[in-house]
Amino acid sequence: MSIRLYYHPYSRAAGTLWPLEEAGVPYELEVVDIMKGKQKGPELVARNPMGKIPTLVDGDLVVTEGAAIALYLADRYAPARLAPALDDPKRGTYLRWSFFAPGVIEPAVMAHMSKWEVREVSAGWGNYASMIAAAESAISDKLYVLGDEFSMADVVLGGTLRFMMEFKQIEAVPVFQAYIDRLNERPAYQRANARNMAMRRELGLQ
Q: What pTM was estimated for this model as a whole?
């Protein structure tokens, strides 16, 4: 049974095509009409009570949250190639920056753009400036999060940075732009982007 991804080409689920392509596993796309609120329908809510996409179904297993899906795919289908082994010291760095993307970058950007007034010591994301400095430190003076070795952590971190830069939520400083340019050269990313664009055309959304 192939993997099924509940998805829409103009949603966060579009970013899940890249980790699927990197993992090299067959998958089917189940388009969810988010414009009509279908993500809140009973079929999807039964699998993901949040009523959100991406939601991935692999046999009897359901995985939600973009970063979790990416890491699951790496561990399940591309161990050693896209994910350090459990006893590899690089595993800590891999997990650190994978969780940094949804746990720090996203809320820090939201807080900054929405001008939330929060006490820095009470916010797990600290502040916007420290988030940017930390993100830069993850990739400064090296090709990828793990140095010369590409991993699924780059899909998670890089995908988040690309999205934020595209929508002008994070400035495309040289270290970020060079990193994204490298990632954009990956054949798996190009396949994922092409499939997403093709789905937009198929659905008449371009």
A: 0.96
